[in-house]
Specification:
Number of helices: 3
Number of domains: 2
Order of helices and strands: HEEEEEEEEHEEEEH
Low-confidence stretches: 18-24, 188-197
Radius of gyration: 27 Å
Distance between the termini: 97 Å
Strand content: 15-25%
Strand order of the largest sheet: 1-3-2
């Protein structure tokens, strides 16, 4: 009788532990913000995303910085440059979402803040510019087409770059080609290669 009672207690403990497992709720898929009760579709592709939660943690951002969580723990559209603000997190900072050549733009170098109750942004020099160089796509990120033109990689990622002296009228064959620096390596004349000088 005692062994049966102990077996029942163990069985009850095992069954209780199994039924207490937490399940993560399935995130609702969305295409537009109005598909969601929170009013925010957090896009992970151009027209596909998951609905943001109805309540949020103050200061967090979603949908590639298009929305921020305000002090009332609700999503609010991020503010653009010159709009009134109280906190840095209220200001919109563009992300590299859906921009494969983003690293060639000012987006990664832009700092956004709420200064004197106004959203401001400024571009800081990147490591290439600090060396007097230019950031260009790595030369292996191009394909030559049948007609002899260059086509950028179509990879769904931020494409790798390199710091190069592009624009100095000398084709540096270590880093430059007619595809990533046509002003130095154009096919319409005699090329001067830096390594040959």
């Amino acid at each position: 009788m005692r062994a049966t009672l102990i077996s029942l207690i163990i069985l009850f403990a095992v069954l209780t532990a199994c039924t207490q497992k937490e399940y993560k709720p399935i995130e609702k898929q969305c295409q537009e913000h109005n598909d969601c009760s929170s009013g925010v579709c957090n896009h992970y592709k151009a027209n596909i995303g998951t609905c943001a939660a109805n309540t949020c943690v103050t200061g967090t951002k979603t949908d590639n910085n298009n929305f921020f969580c305000n002090e009332n723990k609700h999503w609010q559209q991020s503010k653009t440059t010159s709009e009134a603000c109280n906190n840095d997190y209220e200001c919109y900072k563009q992300t590299c979402f859906m921009i494969p050549t983003c690293s060639l733009t000012d987006i990664p170098k832009t700092v956004v803040s709420c200064t004197n109750h106004q959203c401001v942004s400024q571009v800081i020099k990147d490591t290439c510019e600090q060396q007097g160089l230019k950031r260009i796509l790595r030369k292996d990120q191009f394909m030559h087409t049948n007609d002899g033109t260059c086509a950028e990689s179509i990879a769904q990622m931020v494409l790798p770059t390199v710091c190069a002296p592009c624009g100095n009228d000398i084709c540096d064959k270590e880093t430059e080609t007619q595809c990533n620096c046509p002003q130095d390596c154009a096919n319409n004349g005699v090329l001067r290669f830096i390594s040959d000088l």
